[in-house]
Structure prediction request, 428 residues.
Amino acid sequence: MAGRKFSIETRDLTRVFRVKRREARGQTREVVALDRATLAVERGELLGVLGPNGAGKTTLIKILATLLSPTAGTARVAGVDVVANPWEVRCHIRMVSGGESSGYGLLTVEENLWMFSQFYGMRSGEAKRRIKELLEIVGLADRAKTKIYHLSTRMRQKMNFARGFLTDPEVLFLDEPTIGLDVQTARTLRTFTRRWIDEHRDRTILLTTHYMYEADELCDRVAIIDQGRVLACDAPAALKRSLQGEAVFRLTVDGDRDLGPLLEGVGRVQRFAHAARDGHTELDLILSDENALVPVLTAIQGAGAKLLSLEKREPTLEDVFLPLLQVAAYVYIYRAIGAPPEFTGFVVLGGAMTAYWMNILWNMASQLYWEKEWGTSNCTSSPPRRGWRSSSGWRSAGSLPPRSGRWGSSWRGSSCSASRWPRRTCPR
Prediction:
């Protein structure tokens, strides 16, 4: 990192929260939210931060936005130290939080945004033009004259998104900005965010999100963080390539064919499985690399079979995300029990292999379980009775019977034959 200027740079950034004795309930009194996190974000880059709840994403953004002081380490935004010069840092940044509901209720949407623009010294005419443009983008143009207390929570969230981009900040922090939004609005905001960073190559965005497809679509690089540590940081395509060195293909050929003996003689075919379905044969292949597909297709064609379809399975960011978290958990437990640090590498390797096979076994077990539990489930609906029976005889239909049992009594008029809820109503 020496000799290069970054918009955002952290070195061994650490934040420890002290828990009160009453809240700790006899457990540890310190919670490590960030553990020596090191990141560097260049100008013109959109960096995504992925991680489970409690991983340290929001803590990282709060430190960079000067809302929280680090326990140890250093952080610089726009070349300025966040601890030594927090007021100068705030001149270069803006922050949008998905769960935030800021704004003054007595003011209208337009007035709120105009007020925030004046805090940062924008000219009034330029601010009004920019406000009109952003309200069109987020779908609040018809609500410009509406007071804030008349807006729903998601409408306020849209207004906060517009506020973040209002002054064209040098560094923008987006903390789960599309959480809870409808599909169309979220897609519009993602498109605008990507276009904004492409048009302003001297700007920088740091985005936290739980949506893998959002990080894959928007981000130039993705940092995966868990338990306060940065586990990986690279371009989405590079992370997916690092996950799977093998090539996985699914082929469909005509007719019911036994291709096992044919494929056993083809090199670089690691594993295969084939099954006959609807008058054709589906073939799943795991090859050592993509180049091994050519001799496979040649062998199939030589056997007189006709290729109907060819599909390659690509790994996703979710495939990268989950195994990394599992390996990190093994290392964390290994260090917690005080084991020798020189064997950590073996723990990482063993954890990766265990995580891989656990994923396979879990998927198989889940499929078998749900097929057993729900595959033969038959929920039927019957017309309601005109009355209901009690210990003292039949009652009129106008009076409802008392509820009983986990899912209520049978007066709802719906019954379920699944073995999990015998003689009870279908869960609503």
